[in-house]
Amino acid sequence: QEGRVEICVNQVWGSVCDKGCDKTDAHVVCQQMGYPELEPIVFPGSYFGDGKHPIVYSNLKCGGWENDITECGKDNYLDFSCSRNNVAGLLCGYDCKDGDVQLVGGTNKNEGTVEVCFDNLWGLIEEAGWTANDAEIVCKQLGYEVEGRVSTAYGGSQYGKPAKTVHLTNVQCTGDEQSIHECTQTSYSLEEGKNKLDMVEVAGVKCYVPTTCVPPPTGGTSCVNGEIKLTGDNANNGEGVLQYCYKGNWSPFCSLDEREATVVCRQLGFVEYDSVSIFTDGRFDLTASNTSLFENFTCAGEQAYVSLSDCNLADSCQSTCKNAIGIRCSATANCEEGAVRLKDGDIEQEGRIEVCANNIWGSICGDGFDFTDAYVVCKELGLGVSEPTVYTNSYFGDGNVPIVYSNMGCRGYENTVLECTKQEFGTFTCSRDKVAGAVCQDACEEGTTRLVGGREDTEGTVEICYFNLWGLVSVTGWNDTDASVVCYELGYSRDGAVSFIDSRYGKPNKTVHLSNVACNGSESALAKCDAAHILPDEGREVYMHVNVAGVSCSEIPPSATTELDPPNPTILTKTIKHNGFVVGFSITFILLVIMIISFVAYLLFKRFKGKIDIRSLVNAQKMSLSFLQEKEEEDEDPIVLSNDGADDEFEGIETTCDDTSHD
Predict the structure, then answer these.
(1) Residue 610's CB: how many other CB atoms inside 10 A?
(2) 3-class SS at 118?
(3) Do the beta carbons of residue 513 and residue 471 sit within 8 Å?
(4) What tens digit of pLDDT does each residue of 561-579 get?
(5) Any alpha helices (H) in 610-647, and if so which ranges?
(6) Which of 367, 424, 427, 426 has its CA nearest to residue 393?
(7) Rounded to two decimals, what is the model's pTM?
């Protein structure tokens, strides 16, 4: 995953000058080559040699969103000069989390060279000081049973020596640790480890070997070799205790990984989906035999096996376990790819996180799952952006669905979990006691209320926001006075407010925030009333034992006002505009009548004297029209509301409006 960067330009391989080449440019190269979205390392100065090809690009200016390096800004061949001592190289990270371990190179999955992850890079362990205690911790970390088993330590690069850096040496475990990184150890830098590779041998292990080897029986006649079956009440639907016909005898499993379990489901006829759930807790039959006639199967390589008999079988000894393994083959869910949901929480904002992957619902492993990953889940669900609470210990149960993602790497800007980096089903192992869950926050303002569940906007179950969660109101003490405050707060009339105490509009699955509400009727919001406040955890428990408050409100008549409180701003604005129009029209009408009467009186006066001056008549008409026009222009001026002392906020700002302006 490291080397000199070369790119094909006009059918010719060329290198890249290190001038201006940074981690953003390296990121685009690594993404183009299929490596995960992890921070790369840039090596300038022809670290990996200058090669024999022309230097075709310089001064790369990638933004990080490009799909390949040709989309980045850059200087092309002949437009720059670059020394052969300045060819760029880089190292792309592997898709692993610090502290992970894996076995590679073995015939079976329970054996191989030990690789550990450090700085997002898989590396090796030098064999110096490598013992059975160290091997046991590796096996424990990989999920193998160690009680009653021997974890064999191998040196001498028994299972091969991959071309990777050496991370650790002189590892010393006591046997009480849960992971290899908790053991005493000496670590190498990246450069030191690469130099050590040719000079040292590396460590390997073989896990899950019984302390006392009991050879399996032979010569059974109860079944045909290689057959498999499920036992249990729901076996016909793809779930139950798994059994394999070994040399004519039915045998349960004590060891099974996702890849091998997928082959089992194919063999059983569930060929459409390659995801399966594996259970070791005996949930399908606690009385099933816990002695397996073999150790384990390994379906190696990329081959799409259709029968477990085609895979490698380790069967030198029988094996025992606490409970025989059960499986559940996945069935179609007809869900939208990437959709998420929360399951088995006490309220609708919390639960086990499930995601639709390949048309089935699956859960997420808690390994590497943090609040940034949960934030993307909550955002996708349309909930608030406040920091969620994260659980990685199957707090909401593990469900019966497969664990489809692990080691999520969301950055927070993604719109769905599909856009996050992650390991997908079949590329990781995860215990079912590590399923991720979350408590999301709602996008609401503290103390605000709303109505839900009604047929009209004016009715519904009362919800109030506290602790960034929409919650309910217990009906204890709830009456029409309390309902009138809710209606007024929402812009409706206090008069005619009706309270309901029978969960008439439904009882949403949410915590209860308030009880014993006691409004006096003059409050402008429910949050200002006396009430008993309940913490979210207590409200979850209260929920099962109470009915929740509802209200029905009436619209405010167009000219109605109330003197109980300072007027509602929404109603005040409408009233001011309406009254302003009425007053302006009335004044104009009265002035017009006065002018007409005056004009008629003037004519009568002239007639009485027998002298009607046409020029005077015309001037009078002009004066009347001019006055009316000025009055109309005054009435067209917008109404301005201001608060005393508020003008300072707008000093220096020119505010104008014209005939096309709208307030």
Answers:
(1) 6
(2) strand
(3) yes
(4) 444 445 454 444 444 444 4
(5) 614-636
(6) 367
(7) 0.59
